[in-house]
Give the backbone structure.
Amino acid sequence: SYIVVKGGNDYVITNPQGYYFATKGAAKVLSFRIGNDVYPFEQFDLKYNRPDIILNDISKFAFADPGNNPNTPLIKSYYVAYQKRLKRLGFNESQLGSTFHTPGITINSADLPLSTKQTVLNFDIKAEDNLYNLKSINVWVNDVPLYGAAGKSINGKTAITHCSVPLGNERNKISISCTNEKGAESYKESFEIIYEGGVVNYKTYFIGIGISNYQDASFNLKYAEKDIKDLAKIAAQKNAEIILLTNENATKENILKLKERLLQTSVNDKIIISLSGHGLLSKDLDFYYATYDTDFRHPEKKGLLYEDLESLLDGIPARNKLLLVDACHSGEVDKDINIQVAETKPEQGVSGISARGSALIIDSSSIGLENSFELMQDVFSDISNGNGAIIISAAGGMEYALESAQWNNGVFTYCVLNALQNGVADTNTDKKISVEELKNYVSTQVQTLTGGRQKPTSRKENLENNWTLW
């Protein structure tokens, strides 16, 4: 039998074989049971989240003749999107279709309380593998890695690790796994604990990085510096600590030095980093944020690589982390599409609308009506083990981020400002704006204001930590 579960705008459709098609919102409440053990959805989502299979099954009931099935192109697009997801995470279907060796992990969960007034939770983790040496222990609190994205190094076929987890305000979902030297990860053990010791004070940090005046003045912008100063003004109203790097101060060296300050944060602190300026793609199609002294024709020399931005937020104590990137090409690029970076030059759009990046030459024959890469991003949750931050990019990997006098800002930042100042993003009317509410509002508004030419994307997500931004 087929099961359909719907709540609000979210739904799950599952078939008798266990495959399902779920919206991202519905994925938050999914879990898998094996015997008496319950595992989070991401443990098996890669194998069983198959919208192509579900839509094909439904079509068999609706269309007796497969040749007259109008859903065939969409089914194919879903399948290609699924293949891209596997490739992105380093898997193939044959691995998922067979039983492959994994290490094991156990914790003394019976001794753990459901709630506590202690600020730190202590427990032991036992990892073991009867074939291969172990490589790392991984611990997440609300999907934010305690030991950084790479985990804590261990060795040998058996390892016992004592773990001390600083608890955040209220709910703490703790997940543990281990990885062996072959890259195989154990099933995750998860439990929740509520901290009842009273609200712990926290600080909000706003770090703004914006460049309007570059060393190469032919690439100057009008509104990038203003973007981050406007955001800093409203952050100051919330008593945030403000750190600004603008124009000649926004060098790669100065930006990377911010990590020293971020390492001094606390568990409950909120980190908001906003970047405005040019976004560039190298010849290898890697994204670089153009720093003040970037060589625009060779961004890899002094530009800031996307992975450098991620590393700023990896392994720091603060668990509430948001990165906003108002720059061209800041979304992930589908490197399977034939794209060439044209000679980098300032781009001027229509009606005084300027773009914050370089021109691309795209082979349109490699892009179908259903863009499988965008489909992958829209349909599937990001289950890669990142740094736990939420990263919202102003534009897709092949798109331009626009600025204009009609917005008096970059359009992305203009929408962020509206969301925070006017409360229009508060869809559940609780007088608070969550990170998810901000993301949804900005995505819709930017597309509306640009006539669909610019579509913000979630470069990294954290479904377990939808924290209150404002």
